[in-house]
C-alpha cells in the first residue's frame, strides 16, 4: 500500500490495524477483505468507467483524466497501471476507483482504436501491414532501422543509406552493383 492512501494522506490507525495479518490465525484473508473500502457502485460510480486522458504532468508523469459523472469540472489527478505518453492525450481510458472514491481514479488501460495496426508517435504516422507472409512498414518521410552503430535509412526521395563500421555483401548467386554512376572510394 506504500504508506499512503492515494490521496496524499496517511492512512488512519484503524486502516493500519485492519490490514495487519495475524500470524497465529488461519484466516489471513479476513482482515484484508474487511478493509474499509466501499464495494464498486456504492458511491454512485460503476466498477469501470470510460474517461479521457487530458494531460500528463511533466514533473511527475501523473495522468490527468476526466470522466462522466465527475463532480468537479477540473481534470482529476490519477495513477496508472500502464505507461502513458504525450501522444496518447485525448484517448479514451478505462478507469477504476480506489475504494470506490471518485477522487482516486486509476487508469487501467487505453481503449484500442479501430485500426490496431496503426502506430503513432510524436513525429507522425507509421503504418504496419501484416498479412502472414509479408510485413510492410511505411512512413511518410523517413524510415530508420538502427542497432548500435549500424543503420539502414530509407527516405521519401528514394535514397537508401546503409551505414556501419563493417558492411558485408554476400551472395551465392550473382551480386550486381548497378547505378547511373558507380563510385568506389
From TrEMBL:
Record domain DUF6484: where: 50-111
Family annotation (Pfam families): DUF6484
Task: Output the superkingdom of the source species.
Answer: Bacteria
> Entry's InterPro entries?
DUF6484 (IPR045506)
Q: What is the protein name for this chain?
A: DUF6484 domain-containing protein
Organism source for this protein?
Answer: Roseateles violae
Amino acid at each position: 500500500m506504500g504508506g499512503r492512501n492515494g490521496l496524499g494522506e496517511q492512512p488512519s490507525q484503524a486502516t493500519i490495524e485492519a490490514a495487519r495479518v495475524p500470524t497465529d490465525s488461519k484466516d489471513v484473508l479476513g482482515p484484508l477483505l474487511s478493509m474499509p473500502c466501499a464495494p464498486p457502485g456504492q458511491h454512485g460510480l460503476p466498477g469501470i468507467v470510460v474517461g479521457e486522458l487530458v494531460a500528463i504532468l511533466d514533473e511527475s508523469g501523473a495522468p490527468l483524466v476526466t470522466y462522466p459523472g465527475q463532480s468537479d469540472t477540473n481534470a482529476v489527478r490519477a495513477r496508472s497501471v500502464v505507461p502513458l505518453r504525450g501522444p496518447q492525450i485525448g484517448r479514451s481510458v478505462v478507469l477504476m476507483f480506489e475504494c470506490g472514491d471518485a477522487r482516486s481514479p486509476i487508469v487501467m488501460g487505453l481503449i484500442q482504436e479501430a485500426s490496431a495496426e496503426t502506430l503513432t508517435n510524436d513525429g507522425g504516422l507509421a503504418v504496419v501491414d501484416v498479412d502472414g507472409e509479408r510485413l510492410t512498414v511505411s512512413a511518410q518521410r523517413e524510415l530508420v532501422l538502427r542497432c548500435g552503430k549500424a543503420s539502414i535509412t530509407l527516405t521519401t526521395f528514394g535514397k537508401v543509406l546503409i551505414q556501419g563500421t563493417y558492411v558485408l555483401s554476400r551472395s551465392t548467386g550473382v551480386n550486381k552493383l548497378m547505378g547511373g554512376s558507380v563510385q568506389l572510394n
